[in-house]
Amino acid sequence: MIRWFISAILALALAIASPAHSAEEFRVGYVRVMDDAQAMLAYEAGLYEKYGLDAKLIEFSSGTDLIKGIVGGQLDIGVLGFSNAFTWASRGADLKIVGGAQRGYHSLLVREDSGIESVADLKGKNLASQKQGSTADIVLKGVMLDNAGLQPNDLNIMGVAPAVAVQSLVGGRVDAAFLFEPYDRIAQLVAPVKQIYEIGEVWPFPCMVVITSAETLEKRKDVLWAALDAQREAIDMLENQPAEAAPMITNYFIKDEFVASRNQGKVPATEVITQAIQTNDFSAKLTEADIARMKELAGIMQAQGILPAGEEFNVDALLDLSWQNAREL
Q1: CA 8/CA 13 separation, integer angstroms
Q2: Strand 24-31 vs strand 53-60: parallel, antiparallel, or unpaired?
Q3: Regarding beta strands 77-81 and 126-129, do their DSSP bridges make them parallel or antiparallel, or are they unpaired?
Q4: Which domains does the chain show, CATH number per domain?
Q5: pTM for the whole structure
């Protein structure tokens, strides 16, 4: 009996002295847009924890700011536009694109009283869009306007936050806005606007991707892959169970329980976000078509002076698709 008691005391002492297994801390950067929903949902649904990660979600106001966190070592990964990786890689940053996130949804909303019926009608008008040099800005100028025969200086383009763009539409301070979800959906509820163009229908491209540093990939590959597994599961939920996913991330975009619309009364915020999720094309995989489009956009960035002119920008050098190949996506 005494021997058993001593053994029990020793076991208890060892248990107290031994540190419990702790999850790996992992820092994820995101921007508060529907394009980054996989990062938010993986956190809110406990998926990072499921895959053994103690995830810290860190918000940035733009992908341009977020990429600085990755380059500076303050983040392990970020979900953002690949154009940011191109820009910094051209300056010598050792970055890797390791997975997909979302294929571009950017709509052109115009005020009903603006007289704008096509992209070409934007000439001489005021348009709210994103920061200069952002992925949205690049495709706005290099694809949407270019295909309509317009130059950026043919109209007044204002780079503002999405919420400011929506309020500018409501107040009539701009004639149009180039928006992504859920701000497109919110604007259509609260402002006298209509959608006349959506770039994902005309020119699909992998707007958002998962970016990390080459050092993180080398030193924390297993942890990085666990994060990608968690985000892939989140993407599966977004694609197949949007109504279940929406309540978990609604508060990131809409604080109130309802959105007071112009014509539909009070619309539940979760319904707005469910619809916004459904308009997007989320994908953890980067396809050959996606990569070809990235190379095309690199050429557009060179033409805009964002990337150095001259020889073709080496997109393949930034890609590390070992995770998706191992998972047979």
Answers
A1: 9
A2: parallel
A3: unpaired
A4: 24-103+205-260+268-326 (3.40.190.10), 107-202 (3.40.190.10)
A5: 0.90
Query: Which residues make Cβ contacts (< 8 Å) with residue 236, sequence separation at least 6?
Result: none
Q: Which tens digit of pLDDT belongs to each residue from 55-101? A: 999 999 888 899 999 999 999 999 999 999 999 999 999 999 999 99
Task: Identify the CA nearest to 205 among candidates 156, 272, 144.
Answer: 144
C-alpha to C-alpha distance for 7 and 142, rounded to whole angstroms: 74
Omega within 30 of 0 (cis) for the link into 182: yes
How does pLDDT run across 11-33, given as a tens digit for each residue? Answer: 444 334 433 457 889 999 999 99
Mean pLDDT (the chain) is: 92
CB neighbours (10 Å) of residue 2? 6
- Cα–Cα separations (whole angstroms), residue 169 to 93, 153, 159, 198, 225: 38, 21, 14, 17, 42
In this structure, the number of other CB atoms found within 10 A of the CB of residue 294 comes to: 23
Distance set, CA 88 to CA 63, 70, 177, 279 (Å): 12, 10, 28, 30
Is residue 177 a contact partner of residue 168, using CB atoms and an 8 Å limit? yes
